[in-house]
Amino acid sequence: MNFQEKINTDLKEAMKAKDEKALRAIRAIKAAILLANTDGSGQELTEERGITIIQKLLKQRKESFEIYEKQNRADLAQTEKEEIEVISKYLPEQLSESDLRKFIQQIIIDTSASGPKDMGKVMGVATKSLAGKADSKNVSLLVKELLGS
User: Is residue 127 within 8 Å of residue 139, measured between CB atoms?
Assistant: First the structure.
């Protein structure tokens, strides 16, 4: 079962179960997929592209959650939190910080990076290798730390 079929199957199951939380989140994913399919780029929806779309949706939800929390809007924050939980299920399991640190250290060794000037080289490899497995913000912070900037 490919990525799009899984989303459609889960949407049907959420409808049958009358699960409003899951319905909201899965419909958002489906809408993003439809937009990606009709964006004119002609790119096929691969697993990697699907993960990128879901990461973007998750990032948007997290940012909205933080804003609502700051503004004391618990009702809206709760909605975002529920959607974050559902959307997260479609991403591969996230690496722990220690595993992520080891992975980035290996990339630094492989690319012969020696300092802050090599951050772009390391981030390029890390972004491709860790797609969906780690938050890019955490990756960036660790790369900066390990390169000594």
Answer: yes
Question: So what's the pLDDT on residue 61?
Answer: 94
Among residues 88, 106, 126, the one where a domain terminates is 88
Q: How many structural domains compose the chain?
A: 2
Question: pLDDT tens for residues 83-96?
Answer: 999 998 988 888 88
For 124-139, b/e burial (b = at least 16 CB within 10 A) is ebbeeebbbbbbeeeb
* pTM over cut 0.70: yes
Q: What is the pLDDT of residue 149?
A: 57
Q: Are 131 and 51 in contact (CB under 8 A)?
A: yes
Whether the CB-CB separation of 134 and 100 falls below 8 Å is answered with yes
pLDDT at 1: 67
Q: Are 58 and 108 contained in the same domain?
A: no
Q: Say whether both 53 and 113 belong to one domain.
A: no
Rounded to an integer, what distance in angstroms lies between the CA atom of residue 133 and that of residue 130?
Answer: 5
Containing structural domain, residue 119: 97-147
Can you tell me the distance from the alpha carbon of 134 to that of 64, in angstroms, rounded to the nearest whole number? 20
